[in-house]
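B., you asked whether I could sanity-check this one before it goes into the benchmark set. Here's the sequence:
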Amino acid sequence: MSSQDQTAPRASLTSAATPGTEAGKPSLARRILSDGFSSWALALPVTLVLAFFLLAPIALIVVVSFWGSTSFSIYPAFIFDNYEYLLGSQVTYSVFLQTLKFAFLTWAITLVLGFTIAYYLTFHIHSLTWQIVLFLLCTIPFWTSNIIRMISWIPFLGRNGIANQSLMNMGVIDQPLEWLLFSEFSVTLAFVHLYTLFMVVPIFNTMMRIDKSLIAAARDAGANGFQILTNVVIPLCKPGMMIGSIFVVTLVMGDFITVRFMSGSQIANMGRLIQNDISLLAYPGAAATSVVLLITVLIMVAVMLRLVDIRKEL
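And here's what the prediction gave me:
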């Protein structure tokens, strides 16, 4: 028997023993199932962690927001009393507007500061080493606690603080400025100090990706510095600006400790309402306020995501 005659039965036996394969390779359907199972297996741990630590607490807050409460206890129910009291109170709307005002002021100031700092580091510092050094210099305040950084403004802005004493010694004012501390100014200043870096980082990251040849081409075409800024730099930095805006707005909307300390407990925001309800053991009311605040923040983030496609940055 020839070698060809012996090889043919072996090939037929091999093909019969491995059904659904071609030339030793798995079938397309089997590869798809294998890849899909691998993807789900890789994503399962992260999904479980997010579901347990993020989705489950939010679902619990939503459920508790419909419960009832008395002066000494809470009880399971499905009532809308908490939302009716919250949305029917004029205090809620005034506090809500106050929260939005802080968010807008902080966002506008941090956007200007963050863009300016990132622009300087990117286009005026040509050494990569110095860019890294100066960028790390911006992170030095974050080596300490937020509360320490915030409280450090109190002796500086107080009635007998460094700011008032310096202005009086220079003859700029005759008496201390009362609005420097425990006011909307001090709250906004603390917010800007705490959250400016959250705006600097994404904008700086976006600017570093801009091709310098685009700047040179615009300059060769006769564009001046302002035209280059408005027509080249800012449009290319929109994803980073939007990421920073999301960080700043969400952090300010949910902050309560800064408002408490820097206003001397004279100004309220939505976070303070939640804190007060919790201190009074009115957990359903606090949960209802949290749900309203969460929905508001999600709407604001959704609007910002509609304006700019941040997937280019991610």
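One thing to flag: The longest helix spans residues 28-64. Otherwise nothing jumped out at me.
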